Structures
1.
Amino acid sequence: MRYKNFNEAEFLKSINTWLFVLLFLMVAGFFTWSENIIITRVIKVVGRMGVLIGSYLIYRRIVNNGAPDTLVAKMYWHQGCILLILVLVFCLFVEYKCRF
């Protein structure tokens, strides 16, 4: 919901800053930070989860300021059919790989 004293320029600057931080975190997740593989994997998992959670929080902040919520589930039958097709394709793929 929009507030009475909503400053759009300040809001966009704030979103721009947070998107830049997420971009930095996402790019940093691709590099090896240590010679120890366990430390590298932990850093990558934490970085990727941070990007996921951060992008959702930014999305919620934008929606709370008046943008339409596009992540609302609609057409459950259609989504169920797509999920069923994906599961069947996965099963066929696994069966095909197991033959050889």
Note: Residues 8-70 form one domain.
2.
Amino acid sequence: MSVDQIRTPRATIAWLSTEATAFDAARSQFAKAGYRLLEGEEAADAELAVVDFRNRRVTAKAASRLAALMRRKTPECGIVYIAPPFLGAAERAHLRRSGDLVLCEDDLRGVVETCRQRLRIRNIAEESGERLKTIAALSRLSDFPPIEASSEAPSVLVAGPPGPAALAALAAAERTSARCAGVLSAGQAIRALETNIFDCAVFLPTTDSDALAGLARAMRRHRRLRDTPVLIVAENEGLRAKLAPYWGADALLLDHVCDDLGPRLAASTRRARLLAAMRRFLTACSGDNVRDRLSGAFTPQFFGQHGARVFARGAQTGRADSLIAIRLAPLAAVEAGGTRLLVEAARLINRVTRAEDCVGRLTSDSFVVLLAATPLEDAAAAARRIEGVIANTMFRSRSGDTPFGVATAAAVVARAENGGLEETIAAALVKLSTAKPRTAER
């Protein structure tokens, strides 16, 4: 694989705090995750705001004033609040009205994870809107499901060992849920979730290495269960602090369950339903001269129009956009596989990439993937994943009798400053011509 070594931040985040030392410590933790942190006065182009209430008193007036100030600076992704774990129930509820709330002390990994989730939701929502604009600009017949979320009360699964914590979680969940059920182990939880009747789950792990914590992490990468929100309830602050780096705002203290669990379940379910609806739209968006019916790859006309729109948006906002060019080799194997090989390869690329990524045919043996708001390092990781999946997949010849494998070469380029789609594709093709194909791993 060929890739330039260019380091660009994943996003720019505004930081507002009363202590200068807090900003210095936070900047290093956000930099490790690839984010650029700027102080509130300097963050004119920030994509998300983080407001630190750890060393100041939380009042409704102060929170409303700061929320209005940061909304003007970061209107796209909203606000993430940081507060100490001993914050009162009324203050917690007030802050959650205008943003996400993460309870922590010095370890900000949970805040970073919450910011990552908010930015991912922003990217999916923005790509949904841009694709609608492209379809409207092309004036083509299109077919896609409506983006709508149900307003029904959620059905909740509570999983954890029997005891006061499980009883408290069940009692709090029943107040806002249409159906509430309890199980005792991770095995029972996965069997219950596979019935597809639960909108969200509440897990009560006893340690940070508990099977329930592992199941919750695995659900994020499961194709069917990734849209099921999971809230983690910890019995004490020590356990919650260990779980917070992975769960952020979704890690709750047992003492807060009675006041916070019901509203958090309702809010998490609404957000998850909307996110699932946008993913369905992005996956199913098709129509005349929009997407190839067999492979799912976008047509050159749609890809060119949409790519130009995405690049113009990136130049306007200063975000990093990347492009992956993929070539199947050798050419004799591609010709032997014919259309069937190209269709199956396009399907694999669509399955491996995210819903918001745009996949199109480039030449007779190559494809191109547009990754909006994605820095070069993340695009390179996606390219390696695509290379590995295709190189280790056995295809069938036109007759369907002989299985064979193909090598895959990939090149990754980033959009240059004020660069256009044509120039970026040309640069990708130049790099692709010298990229070494990757073969199956033995």
Note: The two ends are 19 Å apart (CA to CA).
3.
Amino acid sequence: MAGMNEDYLNAIANHGGSIVNYIGLVDDQGNEIDDEYYSRQSVNWTDPVEGLIRPIENLAFNISGGGIIVQGWRGYADETGGIEYGGKDLDPETFTNSGQYILIADDTGISHEAAE
């Protein structure tokens, strides 16, 4: 039996992109960053290629510092609260001083694959 074709995977990817409207950052415990300067960033997605979508542009997050560790990103439908749809754990970066965490679009994506 053959797996699902690219048209199907791209349709699913388009739907996924329509419900993941925001990207947020998580700490080394998997909890969303809780910081007065931080907020989720709205995301627009590329057209899918073989079931893969990526943000159209890099996303910049303000972090106040104080030892906050950024160790991943997660996708959300809403600007605050709501469902966490998953994401990816990243190499940790500690912010002792205020700054920006830049999530690079070309290194970020949601892949939709068909299992057989």
Note: The mean pLDDT is 94.
